[in-house]
Please model this.
Amino acid sequence: MPQVITATLDKDWFRAPVAENPSFELRLENDAIVLEARVSKTPLCVADDAGCFTAGLWQGDCAELFLRNPDNGVYIEVNLSPRGGWWTCAFSAPRVNLPDQPIPLAGVTTSGCAEGGPEWTARIRIPVASLPADLAFDPAKTCGNVTFCLGNAPQRYMTYADLGGGTPDFHRPERWTPLFA
Model:
């Protein structure tokens, strides 16, 4: 079973080339899921979010991790900003929040870069034990996706899984791929 996925996303949602080279490494590390995101552009941050739980990160540069239980459809979205800000939400169906979930997740750690450089790298470590019980994370079965939102005028969208085109929408869990199987 693969324990590490690495990829560079060279096309945006509309299949146009992406010069910023958004790339990621997703791995299982002991008792945690680790996502490292890298982008070759000056970071665009929308909040003073260094290491903090912050909503709305997708309005600037952001990497996103989606994980889904294929048996019941429950999934989680995790956003990571260039400065290490993060946000999570659990869903019972596309864009339907799952009530009474322990969000933000306990024990999450992040790191990010300082603004102003010509590129950014950010990392998030999510303890598997902190994931919602309904997600029932199982590396052999859990499906998911890694995505990027970059810029804001216009904003560009990149996705690891083929989500089928049309209007950009990362909440298409039926099209996500097994990540660790």
